[in-house]
Amino acid sequence: MLVVKNLTKTYTHTEGKWPKKQQIQKHALNDLSFTANAGAIHGILGSNGAGKTTAFRILSTAITPDSGELELNGTDILTNPAECRAQLGFVSNISGLYHRLSVRENLRYFGKLNGIKGTELTNRVEALIERLAIGEYAHQRADALSAGQKQRAIIARAVLHQPTLMIFDEPTTGLDVVSAQTILNFMAEERDKGRIILFSTHHLHEVEALCETATILDQGVTQFTGTIDELKEGHATLFDAFLSHLPSHHEEA
Amino acid sequence: MLTVFIKELLDMVRDRRTLVFAVLLPTLIFPVLFGIIIAINAKSAIDAQEATLSYVLQGSEHSPAISRQLADNTKLRRVTTYESDDEIEDAIRDGKLHFALTIPAGFNPASGEQQQLVLRFSDADPTNKVKSRVRQSLKPVIDQAKTSLLTDMGLTQDQLDVLDQPIKVQYNDLAGERERIGQSVGGLLPYIIILVCMTGAIYAAVDMGAGEKERGTLESLLINPLPRYEIVIGKFLAITTASLAACLMAILSLAFWVGFGAKLADVDVLNRVVSAIKLSDLALVFLLMLPVGGIFASLMLLISCYARNYKEAQNYMSPLSFVVIIPLMISMMPSAELNIGSAMIPITNVSLAMKELIKGTLDNTMYLFIFAYSLALVAAMLYATITLFNKEEVLFRS
Lengths: 253, 398
Hints:
Order of helices and strands of chain B: HHEHEHEEHHHHHHHHHHHHH
Largest sheet of chain A: 6 strands, mixed
Strand order of the largest sheet of chain A: 6-7-8-3-9-10
Number of strands of chain A: 10
Shape of chain A: globular
Distance between the termini of chain B: 28 Å
Distance between the termini of chain A: 38 Å
Number of helices of chain B: 17
Helix content of chain B: over 70%
Largest sheet of chain B: 4 strands, mixed
Oligomer: heterodimer
């Protein structure tokens, strides 16, 4: 189980030119709290700039929060980041591959970084290549692949070490229908294996089809967290329900 | 760490730009440089030797002997186009005329008084042969005058020599050929090798820091269980390898082409270099470059990790060339010498030590001090890079 409590994160950036430079503080996350269970897909929803990427970066230990608590299956992520990294897989639409290495070389490299070696590494790499149907181009350099092929290879890389928690940050953005469906099916299969899956997307039909629970973020603040059925209660569509939890949208309107 | 190092090496070997700067450029730089120097020197010498010089002779009626000697020289051609002094001087400045010789009225070498001729020419081109050609043509006339004077004054040739140079100093140069060669080429060698070492590291460093950000692989790398300092050290070792590979290629190329030029082309200056520089000296030069490669690798990785993207990293690298060239220029100054003060200036110290190595005058203690001092600098800069690599506001700058 993943428990997230009262996460906050503020970025400081400089605006203006010397000598009128100013340090500006931006609250990327104000108060994020939710719980995600094993064997379920939890949607993280919000408009652009809501704080989803910051949340995922904190959850993946790439950055640290200003305050809050994070717990993965009883282990404090903030005090034991190295231990948690071995249980973590991350896929985003901006993730890349080493373009001068082949797909197979990319997978083997990340496998080794996770401490997998020898026959075990070979077996896992080849099994994933077969499962994600990337055998045809596994020997090709990554820069020769299409967007869909690349995303499948990135997913293979993220699950190679069999993580407990998987984060999918807009994994189907920019993909054709077939590639997107392959990825969604893969997520469902991983959920059925008992993994905790966090899923961010702007396609609400994907949320409806896959997610059991969801959290809606608006300007870094948790607006809703619960089951999809609870979210839809009193609304004709998921879209209406989603909009009703976006105060910033109403202010703009 | 080893996994990161091996992966980065594989990535580098497949990167055409890194290969060009780490292998091709250092391999070709010396043959191209030597080729250009030899070709330019040879061409200038041949041109100057073969050229026929045009001249104006004023007052030829005062010395038929000089007039005849000049006319007999097949590499001289008398012109009569220019008459006034202004016309003559303008023609010389414009390069249309090579020289003008003026014989004054009353010119008489047998008179017992010193005679004077006026030679007007342009010495802007140091390869010009005006003075030597004129001296060569006048020599029979001057010799004839000397003989005539000696006879008239009743002096022997030995007595004339004493009059000409009453005190003669015998110069015994103890520097030896090696030191002389080291002094003349020892400044250029580190300049080329250190710059090659730097360029060898640039593309590898840009790719391993800013390149990771731009490709979107940095986050995937950071969320692996491998400690961040191991990632940095793996990358640092790979960039150092690229830098030293470039340096080694340059040194091997230098050894090969100098040997080749000396043996096959029999170029005099190269023969002297071969006799002066031993292979063990080149090995010591390479050893001295190990920490220099490390300095470049850690500095460039630091800059590359700080940069937001590939372009920004490249923009930061350009001024870095000046930061390296300035201490190199200092070491090339004739007055620059290796002492405890200059041994504390990074790059300058290695460059001066290399020069002393080639000259055969480097003190072992100084060599070890510079080596250890440079290694300490590498350690400090690597620590700074690791610290930077742990700062999220640097890694995720936007």
